[in-house]
């Protein structure tokens, strides 16, 4: 932990920062997985909306 002291003697503690890294572009199989998840999420939302409309 990084600590500084000002002229009044007050301590300031700073958290250590994690090392930065660049994100990697997702592979083809990961992209397909995201598409499938999006399709299922859309189906769930559409189903909920249609059930809500049919009930009311």
UniProtKB/TrEMBL annotation:
NCBIfam families: harvest_ssl1498. It comes from the Bacteria. Keywords: Membrane, Transmembrane, Transmembrane helix. The chain crosses the membrane at residues 34-55. This is Ssl1498 family light-harvesting-like protein. It comes from Dendronalium phyllosphericum CENA369.
């Amino acid at each position: 932990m990084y600590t500084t002291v000002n002229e009044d003697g007050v301590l300031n503690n700073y958290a250590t920062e994690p090392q930065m890294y660049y994100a990697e572009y997702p592979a083809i199989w990961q992209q397909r997985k995201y598409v499938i998840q999006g399709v299922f999420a859309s189906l769930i939302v559409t189903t909920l909306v249609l059930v809500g409309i049919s009930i009311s």
